[in-house]
Design goal:
The complex is a heterodimer. By secondary structure, chain A is α+β, with helices and mostly antiparallel strands. Chain A has a single domain, classed as SH3 type barrels (Roll), CATH 2.30.30. Chain A has two helices and six strands; from the N terminus they run E-E-H-E-E-E-H-E. Chain B is α/β, with parallel strands linked by helices. Classes of the chains: A alpha+beta, B alpha/beta.
Chain lengths: 76, 694
């Protein structure tokens, strides 16, 4: 099922389908290895509910929910 | 014949252990400066090896080499312009794919490349079995496995650097195949760009072309100034359009895809995973540290630990420093005959500087504690835990670090730490509010007045209140600035949470010393000078004592009639409503030079007022004895010191870090001063209405 990354619950994973938008955020996500086909697992949500901690390419990356909403994933 | 010089630079991702390798290579022979024109820190060091003098530059840690941050621009410009002999790329072997992404970009810069596969022990523990020879072949680079924190592989790394320098190892980085569609477009661009000979001489051609396709603003700028400007830009537009149509995605995405594709291909051929570890130690630690319930208490605990460590552990050493300077003053008073020169040495020089240098241990302890949490990986978690709250006030999780470094530390490095913020707006807001934090130089003022006018238990509460107030004022200001002055979106929060690591003592000590030295340099050069100026301000013009006047009256008149006294008198009407007299005015004005000078100004004022040099010891006692002061006045004065404008060094740094915007610098001065006066006024007049201190 296709959804954006911010909707994915902790311990759920998915494959990146598309990154919406352009510019700095887009470039940064690419640099950090969030590319089409990359496997992403949501690890946890920060104590205050935002940002989230994801695992991609074997390392941990944090991003805000509004940023995660730019990433479309195919949930496993 | 002189030694042969080899110029190398270290490049790598943040958290790859780059500074540890740098420390291993250069030992204590390093110095910190700035890259010309920008405010990015430049660390350099030197070493001798096998008859070569190797100069090492530690480039800023970056994930990529795009044009989106100063760090990345500095790193790539340095590599292109400096004609380096070798680039050493520090790779975190346990996080291979993302680290190699930077490798693919370094390869495009066509400089001999040596990969230090760092933390190779961690990678092995993770179950990685890497065929280094094969990877070196596939990438066309030299590879040396290292374990930075155990100083393993340093010698081998140096040997390889020398071999590469001598040409005994060929390191022609391979060219990534971006696929037929991109290749065609790159060929078309190549034909155009190549025609400008001057470009070809200065930049690696292929790099220019890839960057053009990536829509890199700085490379497009270079192109637009070339002799083939029009044609190149037009072709680039056409090529980008073509790629977009073909792939349904922008070229940046396709290029990143291909780079990562190349990397996973190389990893597949060289890397064997013997065991798949789903949750390593770091993950397990995070389960507790970032826990929904425990996350914030742990954060608070860490902050408390930093502060406790800073104050409690440095206390005896601070005491020794104080005693030492007192002793020096005593010795000087014995050997130098009474008169102007004795007064200069004892009160101006030893008294003033000693008061400031006495806090050096405090600064060192604090930087040690911060370095510990930075190197251990906790600071990123702190930003992660705090971001929601910080972003509510228009700040960023990363705004926390500059504020943290300033709290008990120094606003100067704090302002510099805002460089980690990529959005200019976020950065400016953070810079505007960072000076409100209680910097280390404000502490002596608080310590002095709280110690003098409040019992120990109440004193601790007041100190706590000051911290809370500084945060409220900073956050409130950020919110106002964001809402009314600097409107717009915040930057992103895409940040690595590095694995937890045990910091090395050497790394911590070097970091501590480096930052501590900055403070000392500032204190050493500026404060000595200022102390003397202040001493002169109090000593001149010299008043001849009237007939029969007691010594005490004479010294008091001297103080009042001096230049400093006259300035204080001049501003007295402004500071009177907040409970100050001219002496407070003088101290506040000199405090702009550096906050700790407020203390030495009082020191100068009171020890000049004292007749007996032997008894000039405690300034606190002198303040207590002075009938002018009471707890309410002390509190109002503390409030003013808490909020009012930062020292001129911080203002100068602010000016530079804001991109030399005078407008914002003046705004900072205005904002802080008005706020300080307002709060002090409310405290003092409110307190009087309630019947305190009357």
């Amino acid at each position: 099922m296709e959804k954006d990354l911010s909707q994915l619950k902790p311990n759920k994973s998915g494959k990146v389908k598309k990154i919406k938008g352009q510019g700095t955020l887009n470039k940064r996500l690419l640099d950090m290895g969030i590319i089409k086909g990359a496997q992403i697992e949501v690890i946890k949500v920060a104590p205050l509910g935002d940002p989230i901690d994801i695992k991609v390419k074997g390392y941990h990356l944090s991003l805000r929910k509004e940023e995660a909403a730019q990433i479309l994933v195919e949930a496993d | 014949m002189g030694k042969k010089k080899v110029a190398i630079a270290l490049s790598g991702n943040p958290n790859s252990g780059k500074s540890t390798i740098f420390n291993n290579l250069t030992g204590a022979h390093q110095h910190v400066g700035n890259y010309p024109g920008v405010t990015v820190e430049k660390k350099e060091g030197k070493l001798n090896f096998q008859g070569y003098e190797i100069n090492v530059v530690d480039l800023p840690g970056t994930y990529s080499l795009s044009a989106y941050s100063d760090d990345e621009i500095v790193a790539r410009d340095f590599i292109i312009k400096e004609k380096l002999d070798v680039i050493v790329h520090i790779v975190d072997s346990s996080n291979l794919e993302r680290n190699l992404y930077l490798t693919t970009q370094l390869m495009e810069l066509e400089v001999p490349l040596v990969l230090a596969m760092n933390m190779s022990d961690m990678a092995e523990k993770k179950g990685q079995d890497m065929d280094y020879t094969k990877l070196a072949e596939l990438l066309g680079v030299a590879i040396v496995p290292t374990v930075g924190n155990k100083n393993k592989g340093t010698k081998e790394l140096l040997e390889t650097i020398v071999k590469v320098y001598k040409g005994k190892i060929k390191t022609k980085g391979v060219r990534i195949d971006y696929g037929p569609e991109l290749r065609d477009e790159m060929n078309k661009l190549d034909k155009v760009v190549k025609r400008d000979i001057s470009l070809v001489g200065r930049y690696p051609l292929r790099w220019l072309i890839v960057k053009m396709l990536e829509n890199d603003s700085l490379v497009l700028d270079i192109l637009s100034k070339s002799s083939v400007a029009q044609e190149a830009i037009a072709q680039n537009e056409k090529s980008r359009q073509h790629i977009k149509l073909h792939f349904g995605d922008i070229p940046e995405t396709i290029i990143a895809d291909r780079r990562y594709g190349f990397i996973s291909g190389a990893c597949m051929e060289t890397l064997k995973l013997s065991i798949e570890q789903r949750h390593d130690l770091s993950d397990r630690i995070d389960k507790v540290i970032l826990n929904r319930i425990l996350g914030i208490p742990i954060f608070a605990l860490v902050m408390y630990a930093i502060f406790k460590f800073t104050f409690t552990f440095s206390e005896p050493i601070v005491g020794w420093f104080e005693k030492f300077f007192e002793w020096m003053g005593g010795i000087a008073a014995i050997y130098i005959p009474e008169g102007l020169f004795q007064s200069f040495v004892v009160d101006g020089l030893i008294g003033g500087v000693g008061g400031v240098l006495g806090f050096f241990p405090l600064v060192l302890f604090m930087f040690f504690a911060i370095a510990f949490f930075e190197d251990s990986g906790y600071m990123a978690r702190a930003a992660f835990v705090m971001d929601k709250l910080m972003s509510k006030f228009g700040l960023h999780g990363k705004s926390f670090l500059p504020m943290m470094i300033s709290t008990n530390g120094c606003v100067v490095p704090g302002l510099m730490a805002t460089r980690t913020l990529e959005s200019k707006k976020d950065r400016l807001i953070t810079m505007m509010v960072t000076p409100f934090m209680i910097c280390g130089a404000k502490l002596p003022i608080f310590a002095l007045f709280i110690g003098a006018f409040f019992p120990a238990k109440q004193g601790a509460n007041i100190m706590f209140l000051m911290y809370v107030l500084s945060v409220i004022i900073a956050f409130g200001s950020a919110w106002i600035l964001k809402k009314f002055v600097l409107k717009g979106e915040t930057s992103h929060f895409v940040m690595e949470l590095p694995p937890y690591r045990i910091p090395t003592i050497k790394g911590l000590l070097l970091k501590m010393w480096e930052r501590g030295w900055m403070y000392l340099k500032k204190a050493g050069t500026i404060i000595v000078l200022i102390s003397i100026i202040i001493w002169a301000g109090f000593t001149f013009p010299q008043i001849s004592p009237g007939e029969g006047a007691s010594e005490e009256t004479t010294t008091f008149i001297q103080m009042e009639q001096s230049y400093a006294g006259r300035i204080g008198k001049f501003v007295e009407p402004v500071v009177k409503p907040i409970g100050m007299d001219w002496r407070g005015g003088v101290a506040l004005i000199t405090g702009v030079v550096a906050k700790e000078v407020v203390v030495s100004t009082f020191g100068t004022m009171y020890s000049l007022g004292e007749v007996d040099v032997e008894d000039a010891g405690s300034l606190q006692e002198a303040l207590q004895k002075d009938k002018f002061w009471n707890p309410l006045k002390a509190l109002a004065f503390l409030m003013f010191c808490l909020i009012y404008l930062p020292c001129f060094v911080a203002i100068a740094v602010f000016y530079r870090e804001s991109g030399s915007q005078l407008k914002w610098t003046l705004f900072l001065i205005f904002w802080t001063t008005v706020m300080a006066w307002g709060v002090s006024f409310i405290v003092y007049q409110g307190g009087r209405l309630l019947g305190f201190g009357v």
